[in-house]
Amino acid sequence: MSAPANIDAPTRDGVGDSPQRPDGIGKVTGEFAYASDLWHDDMLWGATLRSPHPYARIRSIDISAALAHPGVYAVLTHEDVPGAKYYGLDHVDQPVLAIDTVRYQGEPVALVAAEHPEIARRALAKIEVSYDVLEPLTDPRKAAFDATAPALHEHGNIVRHQPVRFGKISEGQRAAEVVVRGEYQVGMQDQAFLGPEAGLAVPTEDGGIELYVATQWMHVDLRQIAPCLALPEDKVRMTLSGVGGAFGAREDLSMQVHAAMLALHTGKPIKIVYNREESFFGHVHRHPALMRYEHGAWRDGTLVYAKAEIILDGGAYTSSTMNVVANAASLGVGPYSVPHIEIDTYGVYTNNPPCGAMRGFGAVQACYGYESQMDRLAAELDMHPLEVRRINAISQGSVLANGQVVDTPAPLAEMLDRLAATPQPEPADQTDIRNLPGGAANTTHGEGVRRGIGYGVGLKNICFSEGADDYSTARVRLAAVGGEPTALVHTAAAEVGQGLVTLQGQIVRTELGIERVVIAPADTQIGDAGSTSASRQSYMTGGAVKVACEAVREMIFERAADQFGVPADELSLAGGKIVAQCAGVLAALADFLGTEPIEAVREFHHRPTQRMDPVTGQGDSHTQLALCVHRAVVDVDVELGLLKVVELAAVQDVGKVLHRNSLEGQIHGGTAQGLGLAVLEEIQVVDGLIRNPSFTDYLIPTILDMPPMRLDILENPDPHAPYGLRGAGEPPTLSSTPAIAAAIRDATGLPLTRVPIGPEDIIHSVK
Amino acid sequence: MEFYRPTSWREALEIRAAQPDALPITGGTDVMVELNFDRARPAALLDLTGVPEITGWSEREGQIQIGASMSYTAIIAELADRLPCLALAARTVGSPQIRNRGTAAGNLGAGSPAGDSHPPLLATGAKVHLESVRGSRELSIDQFYLGVKRTALEPDELIRSIEVPAARGPQQFAKIGTRNAMVIAVCSFAIALDAGSRTVGTGLGSAAPTPRQATDAQDFLAEALPWADRDPLAEELANRFGELVAAAAVPIDDVRGSARYRRHALAVLARRTLGWAWEEYRCA
Amino acid sequence: MRSRRKFEGRQPVSEQREQIGASRRTFLVGGLSAGAGLAGATMLGGSGTAVASQSTELAAAAAPPPDTRKITLTVNGQARTTDVDTRASLLDVLRERIGLTGTKKGCNQGACGACTILVDGDRTLACLTLAARYEQREITTIEGLAEGNRLHPVQQAFIERDGFQCGFCTSGQIVSAVGLLNERPDVPDAEIPELMSGNLCRCAAYPNITAAIRDARGEG
């Protein structure tokens, strides 16, 4: 009934503009405080003793020597956990501190609080833990299928098995004229955010705790922390501190309960900061995957069936594995119309490092599998890789593997056409070694260098799936401050760098026609905002801010209608004024508000979704779907196996561009992390032990590894989403990996079935 | 932990003699990692950056003396013409920030087989000037390395300078890293042709417990190259050279690469760098 | 040393959280105002990032370990005298003793660049620098680049080009870029990546970082 604000109206720095980030000045001047910068008068430092073994029984823990160390205030073990001894994101199975068993290398066993970090470190060394070392279970296939493997948890080693049965696979197999099969593997990637896990716990006079942490989802933290501390949730007050990147790794708890335990025990504020090595042990990683695919098609390239087995190694505890399995299963054939589908996806427990959320989870692994298959099919049929994709591309109205009908625009064929029309980069100028693989390391002057081109297509679910009601909450309070209408926006949503704080201001400006917006600190004094993950915050918290603004606007119009005798539906807000259709400006908002602010708190819910059927995998499980396509051009030194990604071109449909700079940043970032998975990044695990927990040996892309990008951004609105937007942070992470892998295959002629692809995989001759 | 910051070379040597467990530090790019990770707790640190005698470089009779505290950045900027091989290697060290502080002498002191300066110093037949209050001595570079992170430096000695002959012919350096910047060598290789004496020098990095020369490969090449006729490089000759270089390697499997790949890559690098160097010689 | 000297605008949590509409400095420490950088925008203070940064107070909170030594460093033009562990890196001293937490610790082994500072104008990694060595040197950190409220051209360019997301590497990127432009005021486009390759950005804002440096070139 209230006149909707026209989002094309010229409100400065509203939705669609690219205003500067409100946290920008703090970040460029060094004043923005990250979790690791926190300080409190008289605080102590917490430190964590971790298991050196991937699997062992704990015989005894002797803390006496550590406790006697001068400067040590507390040494705590599982016996000191005040409440529940276990926690977990989706399934409560992870001990706060190991009780009688350690299930992965790096599992927390004991805590120390001391007056100096070095004293804490030395005290850790004095804790004597006696272990009975056990043979670790490290083979995920064995965990999935070998009944003789030791059960790591009471209910066995399978976290979730999700089948997908669509159509009738036997019919597809009968009809197929060509069949391509492949086995593919994805290594264990790390989020490798630069700002380590850190936080500060401050005991309060009422026996509660204040927690200042870098996290992705405060309320889910709260729901896990409070029971472990045996405190009601209102006695655990959380405030978001500066987050130095997340990418999924901050969805699980790290130091939260530990710091709070030490603070409650000592009565003093406790700071915990992980160092880089500890960080590699202190958070979950991307699930490694073992995948078997079989695709059948007609000779003209039309897919008739797809069959897949996907095993995801969840490591020691559940974390997000159930959802990772659901994504890999439901998106297991990608954005292609396939009449007959049979997929079995397994998430398993092993004694490898725990795996959970990382940008694009589940969908990233499957995408590498099905895209590798599409290239194999194209080769088999002697077709262009883009052509075989175009023939099978979904569009609005298509049905996905889970039986869900795509009911919003999905112009994949058009996106592929646009990619095909994108100009190719020039051949490298080989007179400058910086343009060649190896760069300044001077490994080639052109010898052995071959160029390859590859394509990748990815389909990602946006927001939480499978019946989750991952709503968000926003409070918008409009008041006159110093003669200017000013909105205060309060949510619990985690800004982790993606630019949500910028967007919140844009939405308010657009909806309320004002300029001044202040974003309050994110904390748990307001309702849940859900996680900063699944590319969902623009949709969900953006949506919550939008509906809260609409409520405020409605209240203004009701009051103004009374006051001015103008029908409410003829009113609008612009330039800080209340405007009537015929009468023009009725009042300046600031005067109108006077000393009576208008405030609304609103929740925003996306449309309901369904769980996948446990037997058939059918069900409208996804809220929204998003597409990205990549073309990679790679120069490969085929004799040394070194390479240079020359260019990455991407076409992505984002529904509506809300902030072009931020959006492009997300596409760059997602693409680069996909590049890392394609050619650089792997946590090397041998017998359950991490061999490279450092930035000298876990290599993430440098500026020299990041090629120039060509972006082509489409805006086909999703009518269900605020402003028609589509989540944009994850899709590019899916498609860049298979595109780069395909380009390397094109250059080398090798099958290259595992990512990351290293020099030794390319030097086939030495294998 | 004691901290000494001498302001003269004499003072530095006296401190070193009085306290042999004082760890010398110039750029700090290796030493500080050890301290930060609590891998080393030296009784004392001996900071040599206040010593004027070991800064910069000088040249005498075709020999370049590189002071122990001369940074990689300075080597790249000031010595690229005289010591092209070392300058090429310096450009691949760590990052611009590391190159601003790190030194070739520090690379020697740390003795890691992955240090980027070792291959060029080996290939060019460098000498290390060591001094103590007892006196000074000169070691040829190949005698300096004793084992993994073990060197011939005596407890009371300091590296004063590294003497490298100015290039007497084409030189090349190449390094394998799995990333295009800021990466520790999987393996590396340097070659120096001496047009006057018609000899060849080589240096291998990350290829054995110590940096080393491929002496058989050097001897073979010195003999086999058509120095006088300046003929194009025969493919068999380049291949044979590569094989001999690879044969000189005793690499290990580690987190950065396998022994097998290292041998393979060394052969390719040897072949390629020889090709570039020989082209330069022919066209000179 | 157990001095309790307050650091301007930085208070313990309990005080900080009550503050609204505080000084610019307080805002910068904690605030997240969507109006920042916009003309006429009100900046509501408070605790966007919740807690004040570390300060000299940390020195008090953390008992000095043995083998300390009193040193005077010149940081951003100001003399700072403090007791330090002789083994302490300049990074730890800046962050924990002097209260300048803008310089970040990403890896503590010279492999990420987040702790880049300038020493006599040269780009240097604070984590690989022994604090005790740099008594007579001019140290510049990210906090020393702006002149009052006027941002350094490189800082301004990073904001305009969105040269960061999470911002954790940004201090190091900006100081590194300033150092690079000191070394090579006319650095050609093609050389920027190699000369910035010592600074990792996990958000991969690299294209925008390069653009920001191009913008700032010649404006220093």
UniProtKB/TrEMBL annotation, chain A:
<feature type="domain" description="Aldehyde oxidase/xanthine dehydrogenase a/b hammerhead">
    <location>
        <begin position="29"/>
        <end position="135"/>
    </location>
</feature>
<dbReference type="InterPro" id="IPR036856">
    <property type="entry name" value="Ald_Oxase/Xan_DH_a/b_sf"/>
</dbReference>
<dbReference type="InterPro" id="IPR017609">
    <property type="entry name" value="Xanthine_dehydrogenase_dsu"/>
</dbReference>
<dbReference type="InterPro" id="IPR000674">
    <property type="entry name" value="Ald_Oxase/Xan_DH_a/b"/>
</dbReference>
<dbReference type="GO" id="GO:0016491">
    <property type="term" value="F:oxidoreductase activity"/>
</dbReference>
<dbReference type="InterPro" id="IPR037165">
    <property type="entry name" value="AldOxase/xan_DH_Mopterin-bd_sf"/>
</dbReference>
<dbReference type="GO" id="GO:0005506">
    <property type="term" value="F:iron ion binding"/>
</dbReference>
<dbReference type="InterPro" id="IPR046867">
    <property type="entry name" value="AldOxase/xan_DH_MoCoBD2"/>
</dbReference>
<dbReference type="Pfam" id="PF20256">
    <property type="entry name" value="MoCoBD_2"/>
</dbReference>
<dbReference type="InterPro" id="IPR016208">
    <property type="entry name" value="Ald_Oxase/xanthine_DH-like"/>
</dbReference>
<dbReference type="Pfam" id="PF01315">
    <property type="entry name" value="Ald_Xan_dh_C"/>
</dbReference>
<dbReference type="InterPro" id="IPR008274">
    <property type="entry name" value="AldOxase/xan_DH_MoCoBD1"/>
</dbReference>
<feature type="region of interest" description="Disordered">
    <location>
        <begin position="423"/>
        <end position="447"/>
    </location>
</feature>
<feature type="region of interest" description="Disordered">
    <location>
        <begin position="1"/>
        <end position="26"/>
    </location>
</feature>
<dbReference type="Pfam" id="PF02738">
    <property type="entry name" value="MoCoBD_1"/>
</dbReference>
TrEMBL record, chain B:
<protein>
    <submittedName>
        <fullName>CO/xanthine dehydrogenase FAD-binding subunit</fullName>
    </submittedName>
</protein>
<dbReference type="InterPro" id="IPR016169">
    <property type="entry name" value="FAD-bd_PCMH_sub2"/>
</dbReference>
<dbReference type="Pfam" id="PF00941">
    <property type="entry name" value="FAD_binding_5"/>
</dbReference>
<dbReference type="Pfam" id="PF03450">
    <property type="entry name" value="CO_deh_flav_C"/>
</dbReference>
<dbReference type="InterPro" id="IPR005107">
    <property type="entry name" value="CO_DH_flav_C"/>
</dbReference>
<dbReference type="InterPro" id="IPR051312">
    <property type="entry name" value="Diverse_Substr_Oxidored"/>
</dbReference>
<keyword id="KW-0274">FAD</keyword>
<keyword id="KW-0560">Oxidoreductase</keyword>
<dbReference type="GO" id="GO:0071949">
    <property type="term" value="F:FAD binding"/>
</dbReference>
<dbReference type="InterPro" id="IPR016167">
    <property type="entry name" value="FAD-bd_PCMH_sub1"/>
</dbReference>
<dbReference type="InterPro" id="IPR016166">
    <property type="entry name" value="FAD-bd_PCMH"/>
</dbReference>
<dbReference type="InterPro" id="IPR036683">
    <property type="entry name" value="CO_DH_flav_C_dom_sf"/>
</dbReference>
<dbReference type="GO" id="GO:0016491">
    <property type="term" value="F:oxidoreductase activity"/>
</dbReference>
<feature type="domain" description="FAD-binding PCMH-type">
    <location>
        <begin position="1"/>
        <end position="169"/>
    </location>
</feature>
<keyword id="KW-0285">Flavoprotein</keyword>
TrEMBL record, chain C:
<dbReference type="GO" id="GO:0016903">
    <property type="term" value="F:oxidoreductase activity, acting on the aldehyde or oxo group of donors"/>
</dbReference>
<dbReference type="InterPro" id="IPR002888">
    <property type="entry name" value="2Fe-2S-bd"/>
</dbReference>
<dbReference type="Pfam" id="PF01799">
    <property type="entry name" value="Fer2_2"/>
</dbReference>
<dbReference type="GO" id="GO:0051537">
    <property type="term" value="F:2 iron, 2 sulfur cluster binding"/>
</dbReference>
<dbReference type="InterPro" id="IPR036884">
    <property type="entry name" value="2Fe-2S-bd_dom_sf"/>
</dbReference>
<dbReference type="GO" id="GO:0046872">
    <property type="term" value="F:metal ion binding"/>
</dbReference>
<dbReference type="InterPro" id="IPR012675">
    <property type="entry name" value="Beta-grasp_dom_sf"/>
</dbReference>
<dbReference type="InterPro" id="IPR052914">
    <property type="entry name" value="Aldehyde_Oxdr_Iron-Sulfur"/>
</dbReference>
<dbReference type="InterPro" id="IPR036010">
    <property type="entry name" value="2Fe-2S_ferredoxin-like_sf"/>
</dbReference>
<dbReference type="InterPro" id="IPR006058">
    <property type="entry name" value="2Fe2S_fd_BS"/>
</dbReference>
<dbReference type="InterPro" id="IPR006311">
    <property type="entry name" value="TAT_signal"/>
</dbReference>
<comment type="pathway">
    <text>Alkaloid degradation; nicotine degradation.</text>
</comment>
<keyword id="KW-0001">2Fe-2S</keyword>
<keyword id="KW-0408">Iron</keyword>
<keyword id="KW-0560">Oxidoreductase</keyword>
